[in-house]
Every structure is written in structure tokens, then in C-alpha cells.
Amino acid sequence: MKYQTIEDTIGNTPLVQLVRLVDDDIRERNNVVLAKLEGNNPAGSVKDRPALSMIKKAEERGRIKPGDKLIEATSGNTGIALAMAAAIRGYKMVLIMPEDLSIERRQSMAAYGAEIVLTPVKGGMEYARDLAENMQRDGAGVILDQFANPDNPLAHYESTGPEIWRDTDGQITHFVSSMGTTGTIMGTSLFLKEKNPDIQIVGAQPAEGARIPGIRKWPEAYLPKIFDAHRVDRTESVSQGDAETTMRKLATAEGIFAGVSSGGAAAIALRIAREVENATIVFIACDRGDRYLSTGVFPA
To answer: What's the confidence (pLDDT) of residue 283?
Structure first.
């Protein structure tokens, strides 16, 4: 008998219908809102998919081999996923991240055996990315580079997109995803548009002043190289308040315990559901809510 390994449990996450957050207006419009529960991946987020993909593809090309040291600048979920994937495949992992990110994320990375390098808050992810580049130039390890690596969106082209198409029986009309590295929206968009060019791809961006983990507006010089604006039909901004309020409602009204970026994507999906008719709207619930408890977004 062949048993599964932990790698085999990445992907094929549930697609569930929102029930109590869908009001009469949305029902009368004959719209369905579905959440893709990426927190069900083994390391707890959508980033499990590209993390394993980037390591395995780099191995296949002979760029890395077990025992090597990998370096990545990360805002959290990719770091946890890479720490897990590195543990699975036998690599040393160095993760560089701003010091203000939640303690749960740092502890999760350390639990998988990763070394953590904290950078000043004021430098943001831009500083962390620059430091990673400097370390690679100094021979400290190899950067997989989630921001420029085509194996990031490829993971979603090969898995996330096909799963959504399969589980909606091809009925999806709108896809909503937070935009951070943009790997999820790039790869999923490419697959869905090949199946039906009329599917609307909607990117979630933070409103002015919002600081939502996993959602970014990048300065032009740091815009992810994997990003292609032509694959996004529209972008919608979400405020800090709306993202956090909807995140809490997902938990209390739907039993979906997810993070702040998931709340942002859900808020936009519900916004769209009040504008259109006869729609099947899918949003990515990027991760689990338990890695945000220390931040106070779920007040006791």
C-alpha cells in the first residue's frame, strides 16, 4: 500500500459557500459567493503551493540540491510555507522579515527549523528584499525569489485554477484574490481565462493608510516581476476596517477562521455580489486566523 506524504496534502482545498453573510439583496440577484479555504493546506496558507513548486522546480533544473541554504525575504506566509517545504526536502532556510510581523508567524517558521533575520519596520519589505539580494551576492545562499520566480504563478496555474474550475463545474464568473507577490492571481487568472475569457479577475489592494498582511501596493521599482497587469480586469481597494470587520464576521457568522487579507478579499467579493446578477464569485481565503491572535484583531 502506498501512503501519502505531507507533500501530497498540499492543494485540493475546500470551496465552501457563504450562507449567513449573503444578504437578501445578493440572494435576489441570484449570486453565489464561495471561499477557497487555503488555510487547510498543511502549513496553513495558499503559499504552500508555490513554496513547494519553487523548490522542486529548482531541484529539477539542478540549481539547488538538498543540504543547500535558501534565502527569502517574506512578509510571513511564504516564509512559513518555505520553512515547511525546506524541512520536507532537506534544505537550510534563512528568512528575512520586518520585525513588526506577528509572533505566531515567527514562531511557526522557527518550529520548522528556519533561521530568522529581522529587519527594521521603517524599511518595510523593500529593505528585506535588498538584504536578501546582498546576502546572495555574498555567497550566503540561494534566493528562490517569490517576486520574480515563474514557478510561483505556475503552481496556481497547475493547481488552484483547475480546482476552482472543477469545483464550480465551470460556472465561475468572478475570481477575487488579494495582491501581494501576485502569484495567486497571476497563475489562477491565466488558467481561468484560458477556460473562459469572460471570467472577471479582481485584485484586492489596500486603501490608503491600510496595513494588511499579504496585500500590498508596491512602489514601481519593487513591483513583482511575475505581475502582468493585463491579467487583472479590475482592482478594488479595501480599508483596514472593512478587512478586519469582514474577517471577524467570517468567523462569527460562517465559522471560517481566516486572516485579515481573507477578510479583505471577502469584503470585495460581497461588494461585487451586490452589483451583478447570476454570478458565481470565488475568493481566496489565504490563511488561518490563528496566526494573527497576538495582534489583537480578534478581541477576547
So the answer is: 98
Say yes or no to pLDDT of 214 above 90.
no
Classify residue 222 as left (phi > 0), alpha (psi -120 to 50) or beta.
alpha
* Pairing verdict, β 234-238 and 280-285: unpaired
- The pLDDT value recorded for residue 29 is 98
Active site residues: 47, 261
Q: In sequence order, what DSSP letters do the residues of 109-144 get, joined into one string?
A: HHHTT-EEEEE-GGGHHHHHHHHHHHHHHTTS-EE-
CA pair distance 180, 175, nearest whole angstrom? 16
- Between the alpha carbon of residue 36 and those of residues 18, 164, 176, 218, 264, the distances in Å are 11, 8, 10, 25, 14
H-helix or E-strand containing 16?
strand 15-17
Identify the residue whose cell numbers are 481573507: 262
- Alpha-carbon Rg for the chain, nearest whole angstrom, is 18
pLDDT (tens digit per residue) in 145-161 = 998 999 999 999 999 99
